[in-house]
Amino acid sequence: MQEELLRSDQQNSKSCFPIKQERQMQQQTEQEDQTKDLFKMIDQGMVYYKNGQYTFAKVVLFRSSSTLLSQIKQNKISEQVKPMALEKLQDGVRLAEYCNKQITQKQQQIAQKDPYCQQIIETSMIRKIDISFEEIIGLEHIKNQLEETIILPNLRPDIYTGIRAPPKGILFYGPPGNGKTLLAKAVANQIKCCFFNISASTLVQKHIGEGEKLMKALFDVAFQLQPSVIFIDEIDSILSKRSQNEHEASRRLKTEFLISFDGIQSSDQDRVFLIAATNRPQDIDDAVLRRFTVKILIDQPEYKARVEMVKSLMSKVKNNLTDQQLQQIAEKLKGYSASDIKAVVKEACMTPLRADRSIIFSIHSQDIKAVSKDDFDLAIEKVKPTLSQQQYEEYVKNFK
Ligand SMILES: Nc1ncnc2c1ncn2[C@@H]1O[C@H](COP(=O)(O)OP(=O)(O)OP(=O)(O)O)[C@@H](O)[C@H]1O
Ligand SMILES: [Mg+2]
Protein backbone atom coordinates (compact mmCIF):
# COMPACT_ATOMS: atom_id res chain seq x y z
CA MET A 1 0.00 0.00 0.00
CA GLN A 2 2.70 2.40 1.03
CA GLU A 3 4.66 1.53 -2.05
CA GLU A 4 1.65 2.22 -4.20
CA LEU A 5 1.16 5.55 -2.56
CA LEU A 6 4.78 6.35 -3.04
CA ARG A 7 4.62 5.34 -6.70
CA SER A 8 1.52 7.37 -7.37
CA ASP A 9 3.09 10.29 -5.54
CA GLN A 10 6.14 9.97 -7.75
CA GLN A 11 3.95 9.73 -10.84
CA ASN A 12 1.99 12.77 -9.74
CA SER A 13 5.07 14.72 -9.16
CA LYS A 14 6.33 13.60 -12.57
CA SER A 15 3.32 14.82 -14.46
CA CYS A 16 2.56 17.93 -12.46
CA PHE A 17 6.00 19.15 -11.53
CA PRO A 18 8.58 18.54 -14.24
CA ILE A 19 10.76 21.20 -12.68
CA LYS A 20 10.65 19.47 -9.33
CA GLN A 21 11.56 16.19 -10.98
CA GLU A 22 14.46 17.81 -12.78
CA ARG A 23 15.69 19.21 -9.52
CA GLN A 24 15.42 15.79 -7.89
CA MET A 25 17.43 14.24 -10.72
CA GLN A 26 20.05 16.92 -10.39
CA GLN A 27 20.27 16.32 -6.64
CA GLN A 28 20.61 12.59 -7.27
CA THR A 29 23.46 13.14 -9.73
CA GLU A 30 25.21 15.43 -7.25
CA GLN A 31 24.76 12.82 -4.56
CA GLU A 32 26.21 10.10 -6.79
CA ASP A 33 29.21 12.31 -7.58
CA GLN A 34 29.77 12.86 -3.88
CA THR A 35 29.66 9.12 -3.24
CA LYS A 36 32.13 8.52 -6.07
CA ASP A 37 34.47 11.10 -4.50
CA LEU A 38 34.23 9.27 -1.19
CA PHE A 39 35.13 6.00 -2.91
CA LYS A 40 38.13 7.74 -4.45
CA MET A 41 39.17 9.05 -1.04
CA ILE A 42 39.00 5.55 0.43
CA ASP A 43 41.13 4.28 -2.47
CA GLN A 44 43.58 7.09 -1.80
CA GLY A 45 43.68 6.06 1.87
CA MET A 46 44.54 2.53 0.76
CA VAL A 47 47.43 3.85 -1.32
CA TYR A 48 48.80 5.69 1.74
CA TYR A 49 48.34 2.53 3.75
CA LYS A 50 50.25 0.45 1.21
CA ASN A 51 53.07 3.03 1.26
CA GLY A 52 53.29 2.72 5.05
CA GLN A 53 52.01 6.28 5.58
CA TYR A 54 49.71 5.17 8.36
CA THR A 55 48.75 8.52 9.83
CA PHE A 56 47.88 9.96 6.41
CA ALA A 57 45.92 6.80 5.68
CA LYS A 58 44.09 6.95 8.99
CA VAL A 59 43.09 10.60 8.53
CA VAL A 60 41.77 10.06 5.01
CA LEU A 61 40.07 6.73 5.76
CA PHE A 62 38.51 7.95 8.95
CA ARG A 63 37.07 11.04 7.30
CA SER A 64 35.79 9.33 4.15
CA SER A 65 34.35 6.31 5.98
CA SER A 66 32.45 8.39 8.51
CA THR A 67 30.95 10.56 5.75
CA LEU A 68 30.03 7.45 3.78
CA LEU A 69 28.42 5.90 6.86
CA SER A 70 26.25 8.94 7.42
CA GLN A 71 25.21 8.89 3.74
CA ILE A 72 24.19 5.25 4.05
CA LYS A 73 22.32 5.94 7.30
CA GLN A 74 20.42 8.82 5.71
CA ASN A 75 19.49 6.63 2.74
CA LYS A 76 21.24 8.97 0.36
CA ILE A 77 22.79 6.12 -1.61
CA SER A 78 20.86 4.34 -4.35
CA GLU A 79 20.11 0.63 -4.04
CA GLN A 80 22.45 -0.25 -6.94
CA VAL A 81 25.43 1.48 -5.36
CA LYS A 82 24.69 0.40 -1.78
CA PRO A 83 26.47 -3.02 -1.82
CA MET A 84 29.61 -1.39 -3.19
CA ALA A 85 29.32 1.40 -0.59
CA LEU A 86 29.02 -1.12 2.24
CA GLU A 87 32.04 -3.00 0.98
CA LYS A 88 34.11 0.18 0.73
CA LEU A 89 32.97 1.23 4.18
CA GLN A 90 34.02 -2.10 5.67
CA ASP A 91 37.44 -1.89 4.00
CA GLY A 92 37.87 1.72 5.10
CA VAL A 93 37.02 1.07 8.75
CA ARG A 94 39.11 -2.10 8.92
CA LEU A 95 42.17 -0.39 7.48
CA ALA A 96 41.70 2.71 9.65
CA GLU A 97 41.72 0.47 12.73
CA TYR A 98 44.81 -1.31 11.49
CA CYS A 99 46.52 2.04 10.91
CA ASN A 100 45.65 3.06 14.46
CA LYS A 101 47.44 -0.01 15.78
CA GLN A 102 50.48 0.73 13.63
CA ILE A 103 50.58 4.32 14.84
CA THR A 104 50.42 3.27 18.49
CA GLN A 105 53.26 0.84 17.87
CA LYS A 106 55.29 3.56 16.21
CA GLN A 107 54.70 5.89 19.15
CA GLN A 108 55.94 3.21 21.53
CA GLN A 109 59.06 2.68 19.42
CA ILE A 110 59.82 6.40 19.34
CA ALA A 111 59.25 6.70 23.10
CA GLN A 112 61.57 3.79 23.84
CA LYS A 113 64.41 5.34 21.87
CA ASP A 114 64.56 8.71 23.57
CA PRO A 115 63.40 9.90 27.03
CA TYR A 116 62.63 13.42 25.77
CA CYS A 117 60.46 12.05 22.99
CA GLN A 118 58.79 9.85 25.58
CA GLN A 119 58.05 12.88 27.73
CA ILE A 120 56.53 14.71 24.75
CA ILE A 121 54.35 11.73 23.82
CA GLU A 122 53.21 11.26 27.40
CA THR A 123 52.59 14.85 28.37
CA SER A 124 51.84 16.86 25.26
CA MET A 125 50.13 14.54 22.84
CA ILE A 126 46.40 15.08 23.04
CA ARG A 127 44.38 12.05 22.07
CA LYS A 128 40.84 13.33 22.33
CA ILE A 129 39.50 16.77 21.53
CA ASP A 130 35.79 17.43 21.69
CA ILE A 131 35.64 20.96 20.29
CA SER A 132 34.00 21.32 16.90
CA PHE A 133 33.76 24.27 14.52
CA GLU A 134 30.00 24.46 15.12
CA GLU A 135 30.57 25.36 18.76
CA ILE A 136 32.59 28.39 17.76
CA ILE A 137 30.20 31.21 17.11
CA GLY A 138 30.96 33.86 14.50
CA LEU A 139 34.45 33.98 12.94
CA GLU A 140 32.98 32.47 9.77
CA HIS A 141 35.57 33.87 7.37
CA ILE A 142 38.34 32.61 9.63
CA LYS A 143 36.85 29.13 9.74
CA ASN A 144 36.69 29.19 5.93
CA GLN A 145 40.27 30.34 5.68
CA LEU A 146 41.38 27.57 8.04
CA GLU A 147 39.47 25.01 6.06
CA GLU A 148 41.37 26.04 2.95
CA THR A 149 44.79 26.53 4.50
CA ILE A 150 45.03 23.60 6.82
CA ILE A 151 42.08 21.21 6.90
CA LEU A 152 41.67 20.34 3.22
CA PRO A 153 45.43 20.06 2.57
CA ASN A 154 45.50 17.44 5.29
CA LEU A 155 42.69 15.47 3.79
CA ARG A 156 44.04 15.62 0.24
CA PRO A 157 47.79 16.00 0.65
CA ASP A 158 48.28 14.72 -2.91
CA ILE A 159 46.53 17.78 -4.36
CA TYR A 160 47.93 20.46 -2.10
CA THR A 161 51.61 20.25 -3.05
CA GLY A 162 54.07 22.57 -4.79
CA ILE A 163 52.66 26.05 -5.16
CA ARG A 164 49.44 24.85 -3.54
CA ALA A 165 51.26 23.58 -0.46
CA PRO A 166 49.81 24.96 2.75
CA PRO A 167 51.71 27.36 5.01
CA LYS A 168 53.59 25.75 7.89
CA GLY A 169 52.90 28.28 10.57
CA ILE A 170 49.74 30.09 11.59
CA LEU A 171 49.58 32.61 14.38
CA PHE A 172 46.31 33.52 16.05
CA TYR A 173 46.54 36.82 17.82
CA GLY A 174 44.05 39.16 19.37
CA PRO A 175 42.50 40.37 22.59
CA PRO A 176 41.95 37.77 25.31
CA GLY A 177 38.93 35.50 25.46
CA ASN A 178 37.76 35.48 21.85
CA GLY A 179 38.40 31.91 20.82
CA LYS A 180 42.07 31.57 19.80
CA THR A 181 42.63 28.46 21.88
CA LEU A 182 39.20 27.16 20.94
CA LEU A 183 39.89 27.55 17.21
CA ALA A 184 43.25 25.80 17.37
CA LYS A 185 41.67 22.83 19.14
CA ALA A 186 38.77 22.70 16.67
CA VAL A 187 41.24 22.63 13.77
CA ALA A 188 43.08 19.71 15.32
CA ASN A 189 39.79 17.94 15.90
CA GLN A 190 38.76 18.43 12.26
CA ILE A 191 41.91 16.90 10.83
CA LYS A 192 42.07 14.06 13.34
CA CYS A 193 45.83 14.07 13.13
CA CYS A 194 48.42 13.96 15.89
CA PHE A 195 48.02 17.01 18.03
CA PHE A 196 50.68 18.30 20.39
CA ASN A 197 49.67 20.94 22.88
CA ILE A 198 52.76 22.49 24.35
CA SER A 199 52.92 25.11 27.05
CA ALA A 200 55.49 27.12 28.93
CA SER A 201 55.28 24.76 31.90
CA THR A 202 56.45 21.83 29.74
CA LEU A 203 59.33 23.67 28.12
CA VAL A 204 60.65 25.74 30.97
CA GLN A 205 62.66 23.16 32.86
CA LYS A 206 64.68 23.13 36.03
CA HIS A 207 67.89 22.00 34.38
CA ILE A 208 69.68 24.03 31.74
CA GLY A 209 69.55 22.44 28.32
CA GLU A 210 66.45 20.34 29.00
CA GLY A 211 64.00 22.84 27.53
CA GLU A 212 65.77 22.93 24.19
CA LYS A 213 66.03 19.15 24.11
CA LEU A 214 62.30 18.92 24.67
CA MET A 215 61.71 21.46 21.93
CA LYS A 216 63.82 19.40 19.54
CA ALA A 217 62.05 16.21 20.60
CA LEU A 218 58.69 17.88 20.02
CA PHE A 219 59.46 18.64 16.38
CA ASP A 220 61.11 15.22 15.91
CA VAL A 221 58.07 13.34 17.19
CA ALA A 222 55.67 15.54 15.21
CA PHE A 223 57.74 14.90 12.09
CA GLN A 224 57.79 11.15 12.58
CA LEU A 225 54.08 10.95 13.28
CA GLN A 226 52.94 13.38 10.59
CA PRO A 227 50.48 14.70 9.62
CA SER A 228 50.60 16.52 12.89
CA VAL A 229 49.82 19.86 14.44
CA ILE A 230 51.92 21.46 17.12
CA PHE A 231 49.98 24.00 19.10
CA ILE A 232 51.89 26.48 21.23
CA ASP A 233 49.46 28.47 23.34
CA GLU A 234 50.59 31.78 24.88
CA ILE A 235 53.68 31.65 22.67
CA ASP A 236 54.83 35.07 23.95
CA SER A 237 55.60 33.51 27.34
CA ILE A 238 57.99 30.97 25.77
CA LEU A 239 59.48 32.87 22.86
CA SER A 240 59.55 36.45 24.04
CA LYS A 241 61.72 39.24 22.61
CA ARG A 242 65.42 38.74 23.26
CA SER A 243 66.92 41.00 25.90
CA GLN A 244 70.37 41.60 27.37
CA ASN A 245 69.67 40.12 30.78
CA GLU A 246 67.90 37.13 29.32
CA HIS A 247 68.55 33.73 30.81
CA GLU A 248 70.88 31.47 28.82
CA ALA A 249 68.30 28.64 28.81
CA SER A 250 65.63 30.83 27.27
CA ARG A 251 68.00 32.00 24.51
CA ARG A 252 68.89 28.44 23.64
CA LEU A 253 65.24 27.44 23.63
CA LYS A 254 64.52 30.15 21.07
CA THR A 255 67.44 29.14 18.89
CA GLU A 256 66.30 25.52 18.92
CA PHE A 257 62.78 26.60 18.03
CA LEU A 258 64.02 28.63 15.04
CA ILE A 259 66.16 25.76 13.76
CA SER A 260 63.37 23.20 14.16
CA PHE A 261 60.75 25.46 12.63
CA ASP A 262 62.99 26.12 9.63
CA GLY A 263 63.36 22.35 9.36
CA ILE A 264 59.64 21.80 8.90
CA GLN A 265 59.38 24.75 6.50
CA SER A 266 61.94 23.32 4.12
CA SER A 267 59.78 20.64 2.47
CA ASP A 268 56.32 21.02 1.02
CA GLN A 269 55.75 17.26 1.15
CA ASP A 270 55.85 17.06 4.92
CA ARG A 271 52.76 17.80 6.91
CA VAL A 272 53.81 19.33 10.20
CA PHE A 273 51.90 22.46 11.08
CA LEU A 274 52.52 24.90 13.80
CA ILE A 275 49.67 26.86 15.27
CA ALA A 276 50.48 29.42 17.90
CA ALA A 277 48.26 31.74 19.86
CA THR A 278 48.98 34.89 21.77
CA ASN A 279 47.22 37.92 23.13
CA ARG A 280 50.54 39.80 23.27
CA PRO A 281 52.09 39.55 19.78
CA GLN A 282 54.14 42.65 20.47
CA ASP A 283 56.14 40.63 23.03
CA ILE A 284 57.11 37.83 20.64
CA ASP A 285 60.65 37.62 19.36
CA ASP A 286 60.87 39.25 15.89
CA ALA A 287 62.60 36.29 14.25
CA VAL A 288 59.90 33.98 15.57
CA LEU A 289 57.11 36.31 14.43
CA ARG A 290 58.60 36.58 10.92
CA ARG A 291 58.40 32.84 10.45
CA PHE A 292 54.65 32.76 10.76
CA THR A 293 53.58 33.40 7.21
CA VAL A 294 49.90 33.54 8.14
CA LYS A 295 48.81 35.76 11.01
CA ILE A 296 45.13 35.89 11.81
CA LEU A 297 43.50 38.42 14.08
CA ILE A 298 40.81 36.91 16.26
CA ASP A 299 38.95 39.99 17.29
CA GLN A 300 36.04 40.70 19.61
CA PRO A 301 32.72 39.40 18.28
CA GLU A 302 30.78 41.69 15.98
CA TYR A 303 27.11 42.54 16.45
CA LYS A 304 25.76 39.52 14.54
CA ALA A 305 28.03 37.10 16.38
CA ARG A 306 27.02 38.68 19.70
CA VAL A 307 23.32 38.10 18.94
CA GLU A 308 24.06 34.54 17.96
CA MET A 309 26.20 33.95 21.02
CA VAL A 310 23.52 35.11 23.48
CA LYS A 311 20.88 33.17 21.56
CA SER A 312 22.93 30.00 21.56
CA LEU A 313 23.86 30.25 25.24
CA MET A 314 20.20 30.87 26.15
CA SER A 315 18.82 28.10 23.93
CA LYS A 316 18.50 25.62 26.77
CA VAL A 317 17.44 28.08 29.48
CA LYS A 318 13.84 29.15 30.05
CA ASN A 319 13.56 32.78 29.03
CA ASN A 320 11.10 35.30 27.69
CA LEU A 321 13.44 37.32 25.51
CA THR A 322 12.00 38.60 22.26
CA ASP A 323 14.15 38.93 19.15
CA GLN A 324 14.15 42.67 19.57
CA GLN A 325 15.35 42.38 23.18
CA LEU A 326 18.08 39.99 22.10
CA GLN A 327 19.26 42.58 19.61
CA GLN A 328 19.22 45.30 22.28
CA ILE A 329 21.32 43.10 24.57
CA ALA A 330 23.80 42.42 21.76
CA GLU A 331 24.02 46.16 21.12
CA LYS A 332 24.88 46.77 24.77
CA LEU A 333 27.54 44.06 24.70
CA LYS A 334 29.71 45.97 22.24
CA GLY A 335 33.30 45.84 23.45
CA TYR A 336 32.79 42.61 25.38
CA SER A 337 34.92 39.60 24.51
CA ALA A 338 33.30 36.22 23.80
CA SER A 339 34.20 34.96 27.25
CA ASP A 340 32.88 38.22 28.82
CA ILE A 341 29.58 37.61 27.01
CA LYS A 342 29.48 34.12 28.43
CA ALA A 343 30.03 35.60 31.89
CA VAL A 344 27.16 38.10 31.35
CA VAL A 345 24.77 35.37 30.23
CA LYS A 346 25.76 33.22 33.20
CA GLU A 347 25.16 36.11 35.57
CA ALA A 348 21.76 36.86 34.00
CA CYS A 349 20.76 33.21 34.32
CA MET A 350 21.71 33.17 37.99
CA THR A 351 19.41 36.08 38.90
CA PRO A 352 16.11 34.13 38.93
CA LEU A 353 17.73 31.58 41.25
CA ARG A 354 18.79 34.26 43.68
CA ALA A 355 15.31 35.69 44.24
CA ASP A 356 14.46 33.28 47.03
CA ARG A 357 17.09 30.78 48.07
CA SER A 358 14.86 29.09 50.63
CA ILE A 359 12.77 27.48 47.90
CA ILE A 360 15.70 26.10 45.88
CA PHE A 361 15.35 22.59 47.30
CA SER A 362 11.60 22.38 46.96
CA ILE A 363 11.02 24.13 43.63
CA HIS A 364 10.37 22.14 40.48
CA SER A 365 12.93 22.97 37.78
CA GLN A 366 10.17 23.96 35.32
CA ASP A 367 8.81 26.50 37.81
CA ILE A 368 11.98 28.58 37.93
CA LYS A 369 11.26 32.11 36.70
CA ALA A 370 12.16 32.74 33.07
CA VAL A 371 15.27 34.84 32.47
CA SER A 372 14.23 38.31 31.35
CA LYS A 373 15.68 41.39 29.72
CA ASP A 374 15.88 43.02 33.19
CA ASP A 375 18.13 40.19 34.37
CA PHE A 376 20.41 40.94 31.44
CA ASP A 377 20.44 44.67 32.17
CA LEU A 378 21.51 43.92 35.74
CA ALA A 379 24.16 41.45 34.58
CA ILE A 380 25.61 43.93 32.08
CA GLU A 381 25.85 46.51 34.89
CA LYS A 382 27.69 43.99 37.03
CA VAL A 383 30.02 42.27 34.55
CA LYS A 384 32.36 44.70 32.87
CA PRO A 385 34.37 43.90 29.72
CA THR A 386 37.94 42.65 30.23
CA LEU A 387 39.28 45.52 28.15
CA SER A 388 37.86 49.04 28.36
CA GLN A 389 37.27 50.84 25.06
CA GLN A 390 40.51 52.77 25.57
CA GLN A 391 42.53 49.67 26.45
CA TYR A 392 41.11 47.90 23.42
CA GLU A 393 41.99 50.75 21.06
CA GLU A 394 45.52 50.91 22.44
CA TYR A 395 45.78 47.17 22.16
CA VAL A 396 44.72 47.10 18.51
CA LYS A 397 47.01 50.03 17.72
CA ASN A 398 49.97 47.97 18.95
CA PHE A 399 49.43 45.40 16.22
CA LYS A 400 49.48 47.78 13.34
N1 LIG B 1 33.81 32.37 19.15
C1 LIG B 1 33.41 31.80 20.30
N2 LIG B 1 32.29 31.06 20.34
C2 LIG B 1 31.87 30.51 21.48
N3 LIG B 1 32.51 30.61 22.65
C3 LIG B 1 33.63 31.32 22.69
C4 LIG B 1 34.15 31.95 21.51
N4 LIG B 1 35.29 32.58 21.84
C5 LIG B 1 35.49 32.35 23.13
N5 LIG B 1 34.50 31.61 23.66
C6 LIG B 1 34.36 31.23 25.07
O1 LIG B 1 35.37 31.89 25.80
C7 LIG B 1 36.26 30.97 26.40
C8 LIG B 1 37.69 31.45 26.21
O2 LIG B 1 38.06 31.26 24.86
P1 LIG B 1 39.57 30.97 24.44
O3 LIG B 1 40.29 30.29 25.56
O4 LIG B 1 39.58 30.29 23.14
O5 LIG B 1 40.10 32.45 24.31
P2 LIG B 1 41.54 32.95 23.86
O6 LIG B 1 41.32 33.85 22.71
O7 LIG B 1 42.44 31.80 23.70
O8 LIG B 1 41.94 33.83 25.13
P3 LIG B 1 43.40 34.13 25.74
O9 LIG B 1 44.04 35.14 24.84
O10 LIG B 1 43.10 34.68 27.09
O11 LIG B 1 44.13 32.83 25.77
C9 LIG B 1 35.99 29.63 25.73
O12 LIG B 1 36.17 28.56 26.59
C10 LIG B 1 34.57 29.75 25.29
O13 LIG B 1 33.73 29.36 26.34
MG1 LIG C 1 44.06 31.12 24.78
UniProtKB/TrEMBL annotation:
Q: Which UniProt keywords apply?
A: ATP-binding, Cytoplasm, Nucleotide-binding
Q: What are the protein's GO molecular function terms?
A: ATP binding; ATP hydrolysis activity
**Subcellular localization(s) per the UniProt record:** Cytoplasm
The answer to whether keyword Cytoplasm applies is: yes
SMART domains on file: AAA
Q: Which domain of life is it from?
A: Eukaryota
Entry-linked PROSITE patterns: AAA
Q: Which GO terms describe its cellular component?
A: cytoplasm
Q: What residue spans carry the region label Disordered? A: 1-32
Keyword Thylakoid included in the entry's annotation: no
Q: The AAA+ ATPase domain covers which part of the protein?
A: 166-302
Per its UniProt record, what InterPro entries does this chain match?
AAA+_ATPase, AAA_lid_3, ATPase_AAA_core, ATPase_AAA_CS, MT-severing_AAA_ATPase
Q: Family, per the entry?
A: Belongs to the AAA ATPase family.
The protein's name in its UniProt record? AAA+ ATPase domain-containing protein
